[in-house]
Amino acid sequence: MQTTMKDTYAYYKTAFAGLPMPFAFVDLDRLDRNIAAIAQAAGHKKVRIASKSIRCPEIMRRILASSPVYQGIMCYTADEAAMLIREGFDDLLLGYPQWQPDRIAELVRSVGEGRSITFMVDCAEHVQHLERIAAEQGIVVPLCLDVDMSADYPGLHFGVWRSPLASWEQVRPVAELIIASPWLKLDGIMGYEAQIAGLGDQVPGKPLKNSVIRWLKKRSIAEVAKRRREVVEGLEAIGASEELRFVNAGGTGSMDSSRLEACVTEITAGSGFYSPGLFDAYSGFRYEPAAGYAVEIVRRPRPDIVTCMGGGYTASGAVGIEKQAQVYLPEGLELLPLEGAGEVQTPLRVKRGLSLSLGDPVFFRHAKAGELCERFLQLVAVSNGQVVGEYVTYRGMGACFV
Fold first, then answer.
1. Cα(first)–Cα(last) distance of the chain, in Å?
2. Sequence-separated (6 or more) residues with CB below 8 Å from residue 154
3. Among 297, 363, 366, 390, who pairs with 329 as Cys (CB 3.0-4.6 Å)?
């Protein structure tokens, strides 16, 4: 049976009745449906969880336990990797290069104890730095080569600024350094096509821009596949491909293209599990909003305006209105353009016919996924109309990594 937004508001309002606001929540029923849908969307590829989009160990355990499709975690700092090891996680891929020697050494020692931890590199300096630490510890360290997947067109860099390795010719000398070292092994390659996975192409009110982005994405998909294939074939030609444990690609927003590449063995996904506000602007897929937060109405400065306590949780990235929190439930509320969602109060315009009282909850969706967990100590878990638990976030664990 299809439920209306009005039904959903009543469902959440009843389920969370009496819970002090503000609080963040996760709808386990919707989360489980997203988990199943992403596993299916991956085709025959494995899925590595992007921890930065989850930031809650209990949720990651739930995803990993749901299906053998899910295998491993892409984390983002050495300190986070160390914490995840302590929490019992394994098969960790550091998605970004690390430099601080003492923190790298701690993880190298974990490798020596049998943990699967792979470090990201994209230049000779990274390789040489890790080689010195590995030699000091007397432990062979697995590395992953980060291959740039952005595209350059006249007057436009389509993608994000990550690795300087954009072709096999640039990858080869770094790969040969790894292969030549007795203290390093080439464990995998990664290429994140951010311009496909992380860019909406169905933004309301921007039809021309959407058309251009869809055209650029289509063109970029072919270029990404060609570049990744050339790197894998290059590694095969120098006898390095036998060492490769994985070829990692994409994100939630590019699964439908990444899964078609024969050389790809796994796809990283994260944001799709919670399906935040920015995901409403994608034409190629739709997952269910599974996480959000509630704030309390505490003022009514005018009959057509209510004011909530707090709520101003803005997402990172280029500054734009799309990075604001999205008013979710009940329907009939909108942010005021001159105030937006504020640090200590958020005024909302109330459309005719909607009746709200002081103390009522207003539910928001964060524009991005994991950043919601940086604001709250736990996620209140709801299932079948009942609060069934509280899942501690990274912040609730006292952890702040970047």
1. 43
2. none
3. 363
Map 120-160 to HEC letters: EECCHHHHHHHHHHHHHHCCCEEEEEECCCCEEECCEEECC
What the block records as the tokens of 274 is 């919670």
SS (H, E, C) the chain: CCCCHHHHHHHHHHHCCCCCCCEEEEEHHHHHHHHHHHHHHCCCCEEEEEHHHCCCHHHHHHHHHHCCCEEEEEECCHHHHHHHHHCCCCCEEECCCCCCHHHHHHHHHHHHCCCCEEEEECCHHHHHHHHHHHHHHCCCEEEEEECCCCEEECCEEECCCCCCCCCHHHHHHHHHHHHHCCCEEEEEEEECCHHHHCCCCCCCCCHHHHHHHHHHHHHHHHHHHHHHHHHHHHHHHCCCHHHCCEEEECCHHHHHHHCCCCCCCEEEECHHHHCCHHHHHCCCCCCCCCEEEEEEEEEEEECCEEEEECCCCCCCCCCCHHHCCEEEECCCEEECCCCCCCCCEEEEEECCCCCCCCCCEEEEECCCCHHHHHCCCEEEEEECCEEEEEEECCHHHCCCCC
How many CA atoms are closer than 13 Å to the CA of 339, on its beta-carbon side? 18
Alpha-carbon span 67 to 245, nearest angstrom: 20
* 156-158/151-153 β-pairing: antiparallel
Q: In the beta sheet, which residues pair with residue 50? A: 74
| 307 touches 347 (CB < 8 A) | yes
In tens digits, the chain (402 residues) has pLDDT values of 447 878 999 999 999 999 999 999 999 999 999 999 999 999 999 999 999 999 999 999 999 999 999 999 999 999 999 999 999 999 999 999 999 999 999 999 999 999 999 999 999 999 999 999 999 999 999 999 999 988 888 888 888 888 999 999 999 999 999 999 999 999 999 998 877 766 666 667 777 777 777 767 777 788 888 999 999 999 999 988 788 999 999 888 788 889 999 999 999 999 999 999 888 877 777 899 999 999 999 999 999 999 999 999 888 887 778 888 899 999 999 999 999 999 999 999 999 999 999 999 999 999 889 999 999 999 999 999 999 999 999 999 999 998
